[in-house]
Structure formats: structure tokens, C-alpha cells
Amino acid sequence: MAVFADFSGLQVNGVDQKGRVSMPSAFRATIERRFAGHDLHGEALRTVKMSPSDLGCIEVVDATTIAEVKSDVMAECEAEAEGDKVKAKALFQKKIFRRLGLFTDVTYDEAGRMVLPQLLRDEAGIQGEAVFFGGGDSFQIWSPEKFAAEYADVPMLIRQMEQGKASRRGAAKA
């Protein structure tokens, strides 16, 4: 039985030169709730899938979202193939590789520490700080600069991000 749990909120965390960063605890708790009732333990439970986003950030999903995407793509292919199972399977392979081929598995430890892949960090322009931004069944990881440009029309989000950056820097000085 699936448990309804969405990613939400915004948090700024530091990223070191090797790409190590901590996933917000609220996001880890959401993943745990989303996997409630599934027989997953250890690394299998603590793996997310990341891909570059057309928005200029890193898109992050868990395995429950991937299963939903695969189901949606199969239904789409079956409708297009109009009952031809061989054609539906061929369409599925083509579409699923285009949709999921850019995802990379990233594991995190009990404290949420993980390494953002260099290629994804470069693509998203992430250095020094990362903005974690939850929205439904996925979350995004942004560079503060790209986040500010994308959400310039939502002043409250920009203030939240700036407050998160200031809090993080204040904690680092203490």
C-alpha cells in the first residue's frame, strides 16, 4: 500500500569541492514514507535517481516515481500501438530510454550525505551551495544563482533562499 507523501520546502546546504552535500532531513523522511510497506533496506532504500533538467537544475526522484513513469509510458505506448503488442514494446523501449536514460543512481548514507555527480553539478552550475527545492513527487537541486533567476517573480522564495544561505553561513561561523 502506497503512502501519500510529497516533497516540499526549500533548504540551502553547502557543497564541498568533491560534490559532497547533505540531503535535507525532511526529504529523507519523505522518501521513507513513500517506501512504507515496501521491503527495502539499506542502500536500496537510500538511493535516488538524478538527471539534468531543462530548467538548468538537477531533477531528483525516487524509485516510486520511476515506477509511475514506466507505467504511464507503457499505457501511452499501448494506446499508440492500437493493440499491437510488438509495436507497443518497441515504442516503450524507445520512449523509456529517452525519458530515463539520463538518470543516474546516487546513494546517500543515514545522515543524508551524498556526492552529486560532477557532470550534473557542471550542468546545473552548482559550486559551494545548493538549493534543495521540493515539489510533489520530485525535488530539484539548484545553484543559488540559477534558482534566483528562475524564481525572480516569486519574492518569497528568493527571501527563503537568502535566509537559508544566511542561516547556513551563520551556523558555519559558530
TrEMBL record:
Keywords: Cytoplasm, DNA-binding, Repeat, Transcription, Transcription regulation. Residues 103-146 form the SpoVT-AbrB domain. One of its GO terms (molecular function) is DNA-binding transcription factor activity. The keyword Repeat applies. GO terms for biological process: negative regulation of DNA-templated transcription initiation. InterPro entries: MraZ, MraZ_C, MraZ_dom, MraZ_N, MraZ_sf, SpoVT-AbrB_dom, SpoVT-AbrB_sf. GO terms for cellular component: cytoplasm; nucleoid. The keyword Secreted does not apply. HAMAP family: MraZ. Belongs to the MraZ family. Forms oligomers. This is Transcriptional regulator MraZ. It comes from Sphingomonas montanisoli. The gene is mraZ.
